[in-house]
C-alpha cells in the first residue's frame, strides 16, 4: 500500500498557469456574450434549463452549450486531458485537477463549465479506438463537432456490470448489437455511443467489449428521458435492435470492454478532485459574501460564532479534499491513472479521491445552504442546485459503497 510519493509535485505547472489565464479571458470574451444571449431567450439557465415536451434539455440551451464547446475547441481549451500523441494537451492528472478547479470555480454553473470536455467529449477509453474510428469519431469529438455518450448501465444492472445483458455477436467481420441501456448521460443528443456489451458470456472480466456506435445507425432508438433530481433533461435510455457495427468500431481488442469501461469510470472518479474543489471554493466565496452582508440584530451574521463555524467547516472540507486529491493524483501520475492493465495500487487511490470528494462536497453544499437561510432553499439558486448535484455525486461512476469496497480490497490484498 502506498502512502504518498515524496518525489511528486502538485504545484500548478507553467502550462496550467497559461491554460487558466487563457480560460479566464475566454470566459469574458466568448462565454459572457453567449450567456447573455441565452438569458434573453427565456428558456432557463444552463444549470436550470427549461425542458422540452419529452422532458429533455431545451434545444436552445443544448445548442448554447454546444456553441461554447465549439468555441473552446477552436481556442485550444477543450482537450487538455487528451494525450499529446492524439493532438490533445497531454496534461497529467495533477495538472488536470488544477484546470478543473479553475474552470468550476470561475465557470460556476454557467456555460463555461461545458467548455472543458466532460462526459460528452473525448475520454481515456475512446483514445484506444482504431485509426479509422479516430478520423470518424475522435477527431470530430475533439473539435467539438459531435458529442459522445458512455453506455454501460442497464435498467436492471448498475454496480454489477458483469451481469449486463446487452450483447454483440459476430456476423462476418461485423458485429450485431442487441440490448438496452438506461441512465445514460447525453442519451438524447449524442452522435456516437460508447457501448459496452457482452461478447464472450462467462469469460468474467474478459466477457465484455466496447463498440463505437453511430447514434443514427438503423436499429438505434433513443428511449424516454429519465427525470432525476438534477432536472437537466440529460439522462435517458437507448435501445439497440440488431444494430450492425463494423469491426473497426471495436475499441482496442475484443474482450477489453471491462478494462475500457473502468478507464472511463476512473476518469470520472478522478475529475471529482478539481470539480469539488472548484465548486467548493465558489460556494465558500458566496457564503462569505452572504455572511458579511446579511444582518441580524443590526450586525452581520458573520459576527456570530455559529455562522463562523459553518464557514470554517466548509473551508476544512474543501481544503482537506483538495489536498488529498492532489497527493493521490500525483501518485497516480506515476502509476498511470488509466493503464490497461491498471497498476495494482491505483484502484484504492482512485476510489479514495471519489469517496473523499463526494462526501466532503455534500457537507460543503449542505453548509452553504444553511448559511444562506431560506434563500439557500430557493429553487434555482446556485446553493440549492449544487446541493442536489452533491447528493447525486455519491451514486454515478460507482457508489460510495463501491469505493469503500475498492479501498478495502487494496488494503487487505
Ligand atoms: C444522473 C446519472 C447519470 C448517469 N450517467 C451514466 C452514464 O452516462 N453512463 C452509464 O453507463 N451509467 C450512468 N449512470 C448510472 C450509474 O453509474 C449507476 O446508477 C450507478 O453505477 C449505481 O448503479 P445502480 O443505480 O444500479 O445502483 P445499484 O447497483 O442497484 O445499487 C443500489 C445500492 O446497493 C449498493 N450496492 C450494490 N452492489 C453492491 C456491492 N457489491 N457492494 C456494496 N454495495 C453495493 C449500492 O452502493 C447502492 O447503495 C448514471 C446515473 C445517474 C443517476
Task: Please give a structural write-up.
Strand 2 (167-171) and strand 3 (174-185) form a beta hairpin. The mean pLDDT is 97. The protein contains nine helices and nine strands. Helix 5 (257-293) packs antiparallel against helix 6, helix 5 (257-293) runs parallel beside helix 7 and helix 7 runs antiparallel to helix 8. The strands form three sheets. It has a four-stranded antiparallel sheet with strand order 2-3-7-6, with no helix packed on it. A three-stranded mixed sheet has the order 1-4-5. A two-stranded antiparallel ribbon has the order 8-9. It folds into three domains: 14-142, Butyryl-Coa Dehydrogenase, subunit A, domain 1 (Orthogonal Bundle), CATH 1.10.540.10; 148-255, Beta Barrel (Butyryl-CoA Dehydrogenase, subunit A, domain 2), CATH 2.40.110; 258-412, Butyryl-CoA Dehydrogenase, subunit A, domain 3. It is an alpha+beta fold. The protein binds flavin-adenine dinucleotide. Flavin-adenine dinucleotide (FAD) is lined by residues 119, 150-153, 158-159, 183-185, 228, 230, 235, 392, 395-399, 401-402, 405. Flavin-adenine dinucleotide binds next to strand 1, strand 3 and helix 9.
Amino acid at each position: 500500500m502506498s502512502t504518498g510519493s515524496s518525489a511528486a509535485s502538485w504545484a500548478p505547472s507553467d502550462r496550467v498557469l497559461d491554460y487558466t489565464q487563457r480560460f479566464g479571458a475566454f470566459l469574458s470574451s466568448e462565454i459572457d456574450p453567449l450567456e447573455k444571449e441565452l438569458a434573453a431567450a427565456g428558456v432557463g439557465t444552463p444549470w436550470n434549463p427549461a425542458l422540452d415536451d419529452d422532458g429533455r434539455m431545451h434545444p436552445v440551451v443544448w445548442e448554447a452549450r454546444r456553441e461554447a464547446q465549439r468555441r473552446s475547441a477552436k481556442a485550444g481549451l477543450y482537450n487538455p486531458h487528451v494525450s499529446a500523441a492524439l493532438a490533445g494537451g497531454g496534461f497529467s492528472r495533477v495538472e488536470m485537477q488544477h484546470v478543473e478547479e479553475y474552470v468550476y470555480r470561475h465557470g460556476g454553473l454557467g456555460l463555461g463549465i461545458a467548455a472543458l470536455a466532460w462526459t460528452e467529449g473525448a475520454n481515456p477509453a475512446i483514445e484506444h479506438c482504431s485509426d479509422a474510428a479516430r478520423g470518424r469519431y475522435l477527431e470530430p469529438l475533439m473539435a467539438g463537432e459531435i458529442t459522445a455518450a458512455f453506455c454501460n448501465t442497464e435498467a436492471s444492472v448498475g454496480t454489477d456490470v458483469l451481469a449486463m445483458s446487452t450483447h454483440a455477436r459476430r456476423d462476418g467481420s461485423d458485429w450485431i448489437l442487441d440490448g438496452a441501456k438506461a441512465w445514460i448521460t447525453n442519451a438524447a443528443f449524442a452522435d456516437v455511443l460508447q457501448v459496452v456489451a457482452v461478447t464472450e458470456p462467462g469469460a468474467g472480466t474478459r466477457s465484455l467489449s466496447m463498440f463505437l456506435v453511430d447514434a443514427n445507425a438503423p436499429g438505434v432508438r433513443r428511449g424516454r428521458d429519465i427525470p432525476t433530481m438534477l432536472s437537466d433533461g440529460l439522462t435517458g435510455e437507448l435501445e439497440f435492435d440488431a444494430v450492425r457495427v463494423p469491426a473497426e468500431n471495436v475499441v482496442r481488442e475484443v474482450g477489453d470492454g471491462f478494462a475500457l469501461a473502468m478507464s472511463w469510470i476512473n476518469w470520472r472518479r478522478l475529475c471529482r478532485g478539481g470539480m469539488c474543489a472548484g465548486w467548493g471554493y465558489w460556494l465558500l466565496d458566496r457564503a462569505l459574501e452572504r455572511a458579511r452582508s446579511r444582518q441580524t440584530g443590526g450586525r452581520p451574521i458573520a459576527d456570530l460564532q455559529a455562522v463562523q463555524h459553518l464557514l470554517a467547516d466548509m473551508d476544512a472540507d474543501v481544503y482537506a479534499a483538495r489536498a488529498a486529491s492532489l497527493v493521490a493524483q500525483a501518485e497516480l501520475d506515476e502509476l498511470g491513472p488509466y493503464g490497461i492493465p491498471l497498476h495494482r495500487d491505483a484502484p484504492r487511490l482512485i476510489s479514495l479521491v471519489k469517496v473523499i470528494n463526494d462526501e466532503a462536497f455534500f457537507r460543503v453544499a449542505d453548509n452553504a445552504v444553511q448559511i444562506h437561510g431560506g434563500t439557500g432553499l430557493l429553487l434555482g439558486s446556485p446553493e440549492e442546485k449544487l446541493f442536489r448535484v452533491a447528493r447525486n455525486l455519491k451514486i454515478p461512476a460507482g457508489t460510495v459503497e463501491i469505493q469503500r469496497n475498492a479501498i478495502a480490497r487494496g488494503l487487505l490484498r
